[in-house]
Each structure stands twice: as C-alpha cells, then as structure tokens.
C-alpha cells in the first residue's frame, strides 16, 4: 500500500479536504482520510484530484491542427474540413496516426485520464490501447438518405465489436447530427443501443444556427450542401421544431445519449434533456472557433442539466488541455460555482461515458487515476484556482502501488 498526503484532496463528492490523505493498493483507491496518515508520502502544497474526463474529442482529426482557421459560420468551417480531409483519404496514413498518438500523449500530460472519442474509421482504438488511455469510442455514422439503415448498422456493429476489448477501450455506435442522419438510421442506431445494455451513444445537437433553420424549415446552407453532395432526400419533411424536440419525436432521447454542444439550446430544450437525465457535453473554445457562438453555460447549470466538458478536435481548438477548457468555461459562466465546473470535468464526464464505477471521484474501490496540481500558499479557494487554467508542465500523475 502507498499513501499520499497533500495540502488539499478533492474527492469530487463533497468539500475539499485540507491536509488529507489517500491510500492506494493494487492500482485502486483503498481509502481517503481527512487527516495526515503516519508514513504517508507528503506531497506538500498540491491538490490531489481525479484525472480529468475529456468527454468529446475527435482524435483522428489531430493531423488537421492549425490547418483550418476560425470561420464566421459553421457551414464555412465544415466545407473547409471536408476539403482538407479529402487530401488524406487513407485513414492509416502515418501522418494521421502519428498526430493522433501525439494528441493522446498531450491529453494525458495535461491531466486527462479518460476520453470520449468520436471516430469515423476506428483507427484510434489501437492507439488508445497502446497509450493505456481508457476511452469510450463513438463509431460515428452519417447518411441522410441511407437506403438500408439496418444493414448499415449491422455492418458498423460488427466493426465496433471487432475493435472493442475488455481493457478499458469500449466502442459503441453514434449518429453524427440531425442534419446528416436519416430518421430510419437514428432508429436503427437506437435499436442497436437497446440490444447492447450498458452502452452509451452521442450526437452533435443544437450546435449551429444553420442546424436550427434546417430542422425548422428544410432550408438554408445545410439543405444546399446535402443537395450538392447528392444525399438530399425528397421524402424528408422538416419537423418544424427544435433539433431536440425532433429527436424526442423520433424516440431517440434518453439518459444514454450525450448531447454535444447545445449552443443553440433554449429553456424548453434544456427541460427536455433534464427530464431524461441526459448530459450536455460543452466545448466552448471549439464553438467560438467554428463560428457558432458561445454556449449558454449558466443556463445549463441554472436549470440543473448534467454538464460535462470536451475539447473537440485539434481542428478547432489549440490543444486538448481540459484545464484550459475549464478556464474558458469560467470566463463564460462567472456565476457558476467552481466546484460544479470541476465536477463536470470529472464526475459528470465519467458518468456520462459509462465509467462511473472506476473514474471521476476519489472513493475506495475506484481506479487510482489521480493527478497532483501545485497550489500557491496564498490561495484560499482551491477550487476557484483550479478552474483558472493549469498548464501541463504543472501536473504530476500519482504512482499507483
């Protein structure tokens, strides 16, 4: 058994513990104490906390870092992404794999111990295992006019099962967004979710004004792009609702579904998500880069919706440092308690990804995925300090016995 004492211990299930201790046995937390244990390794002026959870990223897009500049509209950014990705048609291109490996290492160095990764190719499954990074991979499906969604889903499930292992890297199916997935494909993915108890899924939802226009009226830039790509379906009729209400009508929304972004959510949308105990994954730095605006973070918390955080991909954010994402969240939501933001980056993210038994809090029996962050001696509010932005160079991983 190895024990550590520090100036602060943040269990994420209550108040920070001043001069507390943690014991680790067989890579699991054996206990948490509100006093200094005899023989414990004293780490001094640091805060020990659970590893962070990056609940939404696209690791296979890491090779696009710095290649797609900020845009004023989301559809403009999407067109640039599509054009750039066509230059790298092979998912096994060493440049793609090397960039993803580096990104995983950078995420780990900045205190992340669990990720929710969106993948169109599943190339990151092997890379995450190589790096011993636990993950929920969402194998993303897109097809607005899928002729045989059940067959498409069966084939995707076979690939997901082949990529999944009982080693902390899980794979499930996920629809991309309401403007890129047909109602029948949504239904097929939800049926697959029902057939695999314990799995979760994800959907980009309420991200851009263009999405709102398309779902309400079947007009605007998304309609134009779908027609250009030859995937528009004349049989599809605009529901005339918000994207959230649309997916509710399709029977897709429940607590197993992560709603990513939500920049355009209003009070009715948030009420619908809260009533189903769903989680919004917010990526505020990416939202501004791609031209969709700022998420209404304070409304998320005020209406008691579960919130997790993600960085999104390196195509739309400068790094995968979730502490930097927290700093941006603090800037956008000054009235939200620092503890609530930290819980979103740990406990809420782990629960949303289906890893609550092992990650997100410091409790006996959970995995000892713990980081130590130096805290200046003059800091009175350790939680507020931690949401102010922490550089990777300051983070230390605790060794598990």
Description:
The protein is an alpha/beta fold and 401 residues long. Helix content is 34%, strand content 21%. It contains 14 helices and 15 strands. Strands 1, 2, 3, 4, 5, 14 and 15 form a seven-stranded mixed sheet that branches. A four-stranded parallel sheet has the order 6-7-8-9. The radius of gyration is 21 Å and the shape is globular.
Short structural description:
Helices cover about 35% and strands about 20% of the residues. It is built from 14 helices and 15 strands.
Largest sheet: 7 strands, mixed
State the separation between the terminal residues, measured CA to CA.
6 Å
Coarse structural class: alpha/beta
Global shape: globular
Number of helices: 14
Tell me what portion of residues adopts beta-strand conformation.
15-25%
> What's the Cα radius of gyration?
21 Å
Count all strands and give the number. 15
Topology as a string of helices (H) and strands (E):
EEEEEEHHEHEHEHEHHHEHEHHEHHEHE
Average residue pLDDT: 95
The percent range for helix content is: 25-40%
